[in-house]
Every structure is written in C-alpha cells, then in structure tokens.
Amino acid sequence: MIPAAYVLLRRGDQVLLQLRQNTGYMDGHWAAAAAGHVEQGESVLAAARREAREELGIDVAATDLEPVTVMHRTRPDGGPIEQRVDFFFVCRTWTGDPVIEEREKAADLRWFALSALPEPLVPHEAAVLAGLARGVVPAVMTYGFGATEGT
Q: By the number of CB atoms within 10 A of the CB, which of 13, 78, 81, 137 ranks highest?
C-alpha cells in the first residue's frame, strides 16, 4: 500500500492546480498543486506540509490542513496489482506566495473555479474535485475497483 498526501489550496471557490510534465505519470494533465508520496518515518500531515514547501514554496501549518477524503485506489486498466491510499486536504491559509518550485515537473500553475475546471484532469483527482464542486465529498472514496464501488 502506497500512501500519498494531496494539498488542495483554496481561495474562495477556486482551487490551485498544476499542469504536470516530465514526471512519467499523467503528464499533460492538471492536478493538485502539491502532492506526493509519504516518505518512510513521515506522517501524512508532515508529508503534506513538505510537499507544499517543495512544490509551491509555501509554509502550511498542520492545523490549517482540513481533511477532505481518503481514497483507496487501484489501477482501473487491469495492470499489475497496485494499491494506494491518498489523503486529500484543503488548505485555505498559508504563508508565502505559491509558485512553481519544480519547473521540470510542472508546466503551469493556475487558479480555477471549481465550476470551471480545466481538462484533462488526473482522473482520480477529478473525482475529488467534482465532489468539492458539488459540496459533498464522502469521507472515504474508492477508485479503479469497477462499477460496484461506492464512490
């Protein structure tokens, strides 16, 4: 099981997204402005704070990370067995101005209204963003397990 932390910066009804490039995963897709794997010995809150600092150059307090959902996902394409658990947080307060810190991995960084999200989006992240746009995000979501899953 591979854990990851996602930080969705919010400004009113807008969310900050990055356009992925040169990562080997979903390049050319819009995604959370800060996200990444939890490192060994690191808590998911520490990972979220680290990713915000590394990718956006901002400081986020753990108390400003609002849990949104936890997503258990697998590969929907029938590839090798892979299990992931993603922790999504909304953050409305931070210190510093968000900028692209890893220019080799992000081609763009922009604010989007939840009612006018760009395409293409990383599919599992799109599911969370759609819930935020509707104002209803389940505490636990699943992705990639087929039509009978409870997302």
A: 137
Cα distance between residue 120 and residue 144, in whole Å: 18
pLDDT digit of tens for each residue in the chain (151 aa)? 889 999 999 999 999 999 999 999 999 999 999 999 999 999 999 999 999 999 999 999 999 999 999 999 997 666 666 789 999 999 999 999 999 999 999 999 999 999 999 999 999 999 999 999 999 999 999 998 875 555 4
Max CA distance (Å), the chain: 43
